[in-house]
Amino acid sequence: MRSRRQGFTLVELLVVIAIIGVLVGLLLPAVQAAREAARRMSCSNNFKQIGLGIHNYHSAYNQLPTQKSGTSGFASRGGSKLPGSEVWWDASLIKNNEQLSFLVGLVPFVEGQALWEQISNPNAPNTNGSAGTWTAMGPTPENADYGPWSTEIPTFRCPSDPGVGLPSFGRTNYAACLGDSACRTSDGGRRDELDISSGTANYARTACRGVFVPHGKAAFRDILDGLANTIMAGEITTDLGDNDARTNPKTGMNVRDNAHDVPSKTYVGLDSDRPQFWDTGAVTTLQAISTFGSGTGRGYRWADGNPVYTGMITVLPPNAPVGLIMCPAGSDNIQDKTLNDPTLSAYSGGYMTPSSRHQGGVHVLMGDGAVKFITDSIEAGNQNKACTKGSTSKPGYSSFYGLWGALGTKANKEVIDEEI
């Protein structure tokens, strides 16, 4: 007797397919969450390596790596370091005008000895691999032909950030903490010719309250609030050319007069339908910094010490918009120069907020080397209070920006009474 063959009916097959579809739909978010958790852990590990590098650097040189350092020519012109009529934002092929970020000095301390040998010696290779004729420590960091400046360093990148390739040079996702003020974050205590005046020194003393001070020497002994209570560096996400308000700073903000723009005004101009992106038609003063040329997005140059690329401040909470400002510092201030030449905006400072591609917050590196995850909801004080800027404030004031601002300052005697 012939046996009857068994099989699935069409209805049963459709039911099985539907069940498989439901299971895949349930599993995919879990897989994606697991992948992001792994990327976030890898990002934290990279930041930890940077922290260890900073501590090893300090052990070797008894100071922290300097934000905005390098070669300048050391001319003798009334104390100026630059020859002739040069100013620090001028491009140069033979020196870097002291524009290098703190990350450059860290290269040999994060297993980058081979790259450091290229930077610290003459004749580093060109970006295209051909033989170069460069001076030691390279040209100014906007030079795309100098090979080391275009090198992508894995330790300086967050795996969750998808940004890669042109128009950036070598990207970074980690930036020096410059304190709780948007002023003097490009210049520090220096004037246009890289010399120091009493006026610029006083402004810097008042406004530059973070661990890193542009052009300034710093050490762990300067962090009077305690290493475990002070942020040394924060995470930033790099620009993808999508008009993201966290990576494409808007221009037109001004803190020079009595009607100065307070931090909360950085939110003006956001798209109501996509609040993380700019609505370029909403504010006439808005001009995206990326329109001023290639290589000007957030995090686009790991070797460049200007705030757009490797700086952050603790004023607006994490993942808030970023905006460029002009500060009250007389004629010697790059932030004033942008009024007449907006192409200089890439060298300006402002509300440079930390950001990340992680859900809900950013990583920060504390002075003791610990890596913490700070949520977007951290208490950030009075966002309608103008930042400390020298003309209206005195050194030593407690931060206006609550717990977040207190974490970004190093010597204001603020007490951190909760676990971060």
UniProtKB/TrEMBL annotation:
Record's signal peptide: none
Residues covered by the DUF1559 domain: 32-380
Origin superkingdom: Bacteria
SUPFAM superfamilies: Pili subunits (SSF54523)
NCBIfam families: IV_pilin_GFxxxE (TIGR02532), pre_pil_HX9DG (TIGR04294)
Annotated protein name in UniProt: Prepilin-type N-terminal cleavage/methylation domain-containing protein/prepilin-type processing-associated H-X9-DG protein
Organism field: Aporhodopirellula rubra
Source taxonomy: Bacteria, Pseudomonadati, Planctomycetota, Planctomycetia, Pirellulales
